[in-house]
Amino acid sequence: MKNCLFKIVSLLLVAALFFSVNPVRVHATGSLLDQINQAEQQKQQAEQQKEQAVGERDDKKNELNQLQFQQGTLKAQLTSFNATLEEENRKYEEILADIADKKAEIEDKKIELADAQATEKEQYETMKKRLQYIYEQPENVYLDMILSSRDFSTFLNIADYIFMISEYDNDMLADYKQTTLEVAAKEAELEKELTDLEALEELSVQEQSRITDLINTTNTFVNEYAVQINDADKELAEIEAEIAQKEAEIKAQEADIEELKKRYEEELRLSQLAQQSASRDISEISFADNDRYLLANLIYCEAGGEPYEGQLAVGAVVINRVLSSRYPDTVYDVIYQRSQFSPAGSGRLALALAKNSATASCYQAADEAMSGVTNVGNCMYFRTPVPGLTGTQIGNHIFY
């Protein structure tokens, strides 16, 4: 009946453990060493992650510097292209002004040529009329003029006059023709210069178009680099934040490790103190009816797969604590003392109690331990071996 009642209580303990908001931690010293090792591993992992992030940050900074250098080079080229385009625009405006001036000169030359041609034509018509008059008059007109001379001097003057009129007409016609030729030649020269200027205008337009294309292309690259630089800045900021986070984690882990080590040292001190403290004799202990059942199932949870010597050693640790003035004085209170035996805190012991999972060898070890038998002296702790921990090793546990 008592055994059945104990099973019911154990089941209730299982439920309480599963729904408790503050579950009990695993047994003390072994758990602390596990936590220290785990914290050191986490710290090492965080340091590796930080180191990797630092490498990524350096790579990202190099990438960012290269992007900024390339963008700076493009910006310098862009400034040069803009200056070249501005100079080309100035030349283009000068060409347009020269073309306008040249066209005005050509128009002036055309007017001048037309005037020269009109003058030449007028002179030609005048000569033609004079010649026509001469040739249409009777043949003795000039002879009468000569014969009417009063003296030889007048005769010569009349003859010279007639000759001069003829020479004058010829010279004027030649001059007008020459002027017409010169004006026409100048107009042709101006037309050629205009053609050359218009060719320069076309070349200038092409050059402006080429430079504008370069500016647009360079602008596109500059903007693309700006996007890449912005992305790199964001990635760098994320990496810096990750590094800061890892540094904070490492700092917190170092503080945790330091605190855990202090607690571990304190528990070792307490263990040694407990071993040196006053201890009752086994004959002074009054065991409750369910202590054997409880101890056997704890032994099963802690050392069910260990050899019998290991099972007995676990039972001896529990009884050593019951005997010590530093720990509770009942098997139940020792086993369920906060943060001491991990199966009691994790719910495994409650499940084992519910099923009575303890084997015959576990019961035998419990009986021997409760009778005062110990194969580990007055050790108060046990755990899986870790570097730096000394004690008595039995199977996969070290007792200390």
What's this model, at a glance?
The protein is built from ten helices and three strands. It is mainly alpha-helical and 400 residues long.
Topology record:
Blueprint: H1 2-19, H2 28-136, H3 141-147, H4 152-276, H5 291-303, H6 308-323, H7 331-335, H8 342-346, H9 348-355, H10 360-370, E1 382-383, E2 392-394, E3 397-399
Antiparallel strand pairs: 1-3, 2-3
- Quote the distance from N terminus to C terminus: 38 Å
**CATH 2nd-level architecture of the largest domain:** Orthogonal Bundle
Per CATH, the class of the largest domain reads Mainly Alpha
Spatial strand arrangement across the major sheet: 1-3-2
Radius of gyration: 61 Å
Instruction: Find the structural class using helix and strand composition.
Output: mainly alpha
Count of individual domains = 2
Output mean pLDDT: 82
Any low-confidence stretches, pLDDT <50, length ≥5?
1-29
Portion of residues within helices: over 70%
Counted beta strands? 3
Q: If helices are DSSP runs of H or I spanning 4 or more residues, what is the number of helices?
A: 10
**SSE ordering:** HHHHHHHHHHEEE
From the spread of the alpha carbons, the general shape counts as: rod-shaped
Largest sheet: 3 strands, antiparallel
Q: What is the strand content?
A: under 5%
